[in-house]
Amino acid sequence: MKKKTSQYPNCILAIESSCDDTSAAVIRGGKLLSNVIHIQEVHKNYGGVVPELASRAHQSAIIPVIEAALNQANCNKGDIEAIAITRGPGLMGSLLVGASVTKGLAIAWDIPIIEVHHMEAHILAHFIDDPKPSFPFLCLTVSGGHTQLVKVSSARSFDILGKTLDDAAGEAFDKTGKMLGLPYPAGPEIDRLAQGGQALYDFPIPKVPGLDFSFSGLKTAILYFLRDQKKKDPNFISEHLADICASVQKTIIQILVERLMAAAHESGSTSIALAGGVAANSGLRKAVEKCARENNWSVYIPQLQYCTDNAGMIAMAAWYRRLQEDFIDLGFTPSPRMAMKHH
Ligand code: KG4
Ligand code: ZN
């Protein structure tokens, strides 16, 4: 078969399969050409991601997703000069699917492999579109698996100032949703319902030293609150759903914003970025924008498609590593608890 004329040589193909989204993207010269995301529906009724089902769903989706990313970028395999993969952190079974496909393609196409740290990529999603923050900046990364406050000094230098000691912010939304009978992921639904309710119920703000976070106490408080209210009125949840959602959301936002303010103050940062799936939350966005007006901060929030898990952010992070010819060999294994590095 005759090879298509190469319109976009020197592209990097990036693959993300760390949790429950199968995604592939193509980047060239630091400019993203495609970002295809397949959202797994199988977890909806389980209140969270079921690892075994996630691996199987990645296995069937990954090749069509890669083909779609190449097609949308208008390039063919001959244009791909390196392949990037999320090495971790994430679910082992999910990471293995992406790692194995990456190795296969690297051998077949004779191209090098670039490893990407999933949380670094969430932060570097800010460099896909304008306006881009300038270094150094402070990033609050809030996703289903992580909650971190990170000082970002360069595209390769990350200092974790604070992190969750237990559940992640997204998990707090998702576990609340499970108690309320909402489908997974519950964050977007709680956000939507909260807009029609009032924060009538008070939940405790945890006392955690430093810049760390904790959400497990909130989960327990909600559980006992719902149990007590249902004893008095079995229909309590359905009759007060919007107010419960508004109250829980307000508490999660308060926990996040208090720490963000403290970190900004301690590090002297006025350039503030939000990343990760929970950055989509309309209440959090409003609260951070209000802080920004009051404290003269510049705030950066990526487009929604680059906030939740996507290979576009993996491609962006890979681009910076490509510039330094930072490749790994074929013998690599996924790293479910991969640490963030300060270079
Ligand atoms: O970054 P992400 O796609 O996955 C991880 O890396 O974990 O984040 C997914 C999380 C889920 O917990 C989901 O409920 C939450 O982001 N989420 C939201 C909203 N949209 C997504 N949480 C609150 N409000 C939203 N609008
Ligand atoms: Zn993520």
Structure characterization notes:
By secondary structure, the chain is α/β, with parallel strands linked by helices. It has eleven helices and ten strands. Strands 3-2-1-4-5 form a five-stranded mixed β-sheet, with helices on both faces. Strands 8-7-6-9-10 form a five-stranded mixed β-sheet, with helices on both faces. Strand 2 (21-28) and strand 3 form a beta hairpin. Helix 3 packs across helix 11 (311-323). The longest helix is centred in the C-terminal third of the chain and has 27 residues, at 241-267. Residues 1-7 have low confidence and may be disordered. Bound molecules: 5'-O-[(R)-(carboxyoxy)(hydroxy)phosphoryl]adenosine (KG4) and zinc ion (ZN). Residues 118, 122, 143, 276, 309 line the site of zinc ion.
Summarize this entry quickly.
43% of the residues lie in helices and 19% in strands.
Task: Please state roughly what percent of the residues sit in beta strands, choosing from under 5%, 5-15%, 15-25%, 25-35%, 35-45% or over 45%.
Answer: 15-25%
- Return residue spans where pLDDT drops below 50 for at least 5 consecutive residues: 1-7
- Biggest sheet strand order reads 3-2-1-4-5
Overall average residue pLDDT: 94
What ligands can be seen in this structure?
5'-O-[(R)-(carboxyoxy)(hydroxy)phosphoryl]adenosine, zinc ion
Rg from alpha-carbon coordinates: 21 Å
Number of strand segments? 10
- Number of alpha- plus pi-helical segments: 11
Helix content: 40-55%
Distance between the termini: 45 Å
The SSE string, one letter per element, is EEEHEHEHEEEHHHHHEHEHH
Shape: globular
Q: Can you summarize the main beta sheet? A: 5 strands, mixed
Query: What structural category arises from helix and sheet content?
Result: alpha/beta
